[in-house]
Amino acid sequence: MSQEISINPPSKKEVFQILFKFGIGIALGDLLCEQLMLWFPSLTFAFELIGVIIIVLGLTLGINKYKSFFDGISYGKALWFCLRIGMVVGLVKMFFTFIQLSYIDDSLLVLMKEEVKKAITNAEGISREQINEMLNSGMVEIIISPISIAIIVWISTFFQYLFIGLFISIFHRKSNNPFQQA
Known about the structure:
Elements: H1 12-39, H2 44-67, H3 75-104, H4 107-121, H5 128-136, H6 139-143, H7 146-172
Helix pairs in contact: 1-2, 1-3, 2-3, 2-7, 3-7
């Protein structure tokens, strides 16, 4: 039996608005931090930390807004909310990554292809014929393409929000007092 008592159940439109507002806000803040990391590589740790703070703060505020419709919220519902925001953020980041790598600046893509080719060339236990076959088969170009990198960004964002949501949801769940008489 669910522990939530609905005070004023949210409509699908209200839930979508919450997800959209907080998802877009978190995505823009996270994308800004990622771009600043590319421009200022010496400050990578600081921008990573700021990005995580933006994610945690955005998820916390979003869950609190969503929780206002209920008298408490279960762990599963809070985690599901984090995952849905993660999907929205992932879609925004996926779209931005595809546009950036396809039309704005493909230098990162060229650098990634060179690194993969260098790793294949320096791999131990692979014959020269196999290395030449891998490099000439076109697999590197398929794997390191804007659409495949964009899909990888979406999947990694989903798992990032899964792990962060596992911890954030603990603090937002409705906790029953074990010492309270039933």
